[in-house]
Design goal:
Elements: E1 2-4, H1 10-20, H2 28-36, E2 40-46, E3 51-58, E4 65-73, H3 82-96, E5 101-107, H4 111-119, E6 123-132, E7 137-145
Parallel strand pairs: 4-5
Antiparallel strand pairs: 1-2, 2-3, 3-4, 5-7, 6-7
């Protein structure tokens, strides 16, 4: 079940954050501030026993764009469509907030994530050299025009309602 994240989820989110992004994990304080911010929405994938994934979106009221801040799925839960379901929830949230486009950065050395985003309609619009530190990995900047987002019935297999 995907639900809105709360501060009670912070420890579980941070465990996934550190496991997923060991070189550049966010701090507890930064994640706590993100969870509390009125300018975003963070969600968790709660399988009834644990938090198996989380994702966050930032959108300023009245703004035409939103940003996917992060998506992470526990290594043992990958390959089951959970990342797509989390992304779908963020894109639905961006639509509810009346954003017109969504941006994100993804590591250039993460072809699985890039393929997921491309399958949902994101297109590469640029690169940020050496963005991810301390690994010196480029960021691929991607953009989705929400008006061109495929209707739910036309989305790739694995998309969740």
């Amino acid at each position: 079940m995907i639900r809105t994240a709360t501060e009670d989820d912070l420890d579980a989110i941070m465990a996934l954050e550190r496991a997923s992004f060991p070189a550049d994990a966010w701090s507890d304080d930064l994640m706590r501030a993100e969870l509390a911010s009125p300018h975003g929405r963070y969600v968790v994938l709660d399988d009834g026993e644990r938090i198996a994934g989380y994702a966050g979106l930032r959108h300023l009221p009245g703004g035409r764009d939103a940003d996917v801040q992060t998506i992470a799925v526990a290594s043992e839960a990958r390959g089951r469509g959970h990342g797509r379901a989390l992304l779908d929830e963020l894109l639905d949230e961006a639509t509810r907030r009346r954003a017109r486009e969504v941006f994100l950065e993804v590591r250039a050395d993460n072809p699985v994530a890039q393929a997921l985003y491309a399958s949902e309609g994101f297109a590469e619009i640029g690169r940020r050299p050496r963005y991810y530190q301390p690994d010196d990995v480029d960021a691929v900047v991607m953009r989705l025009d929400l008006a061109r987002r495929a209707p739910r019935a036309d989305r790739p297999a694995g998309a969740h309602a």
